[in-house]
Known about the structure:
- This protein has 107 residues and is α+β, with helices and mostly antiparallel strands.
- Helices cover 30% and strands 36% of the residues.
- It has helices at 23-37, 72-88, and strands at 6-13, 41-50, 56-68, 94-97, 103-106.
- Strands 2-3-1-4-5 form a five-stranded antiparallel beta sheet, covered by helices on one side.
- β4 and β5 (103-106) form a beta hairpin.
- The radius of gyration is 14 Å and the shape is globular.
Amino acid sequence: MLDTLTSASIIVPMKDNDGSDNSTIIERTIRTLCETHGGATAWEARGFWVNNTGRLFKDDVMVIQSAMTKQEGNREALRELARNILDDTDQEAVFVSHAGGDVEIIE
């Protein structure tokens, strides 16, 4: 059933790879999810990843979650939010968890 609400999330690093603050981008992402889906919940976490040379990276991140249906339009809207984050930051990728639980790394 496509009308059932479930959670979706997007993860935004607190600081860009060059050390600059991403709070404006985080606030914009939260505002967009509130305007399009009625609300959002955000919390700080720590993300980890390993690059091609085996170096472990640690990022302080903001996990931003919102309730939405599994409709393809919602999936594409999250992808677009991730692409906007990539355009406005020095990030290599953005992690997105779609309604229903499947995930994507948008590069």
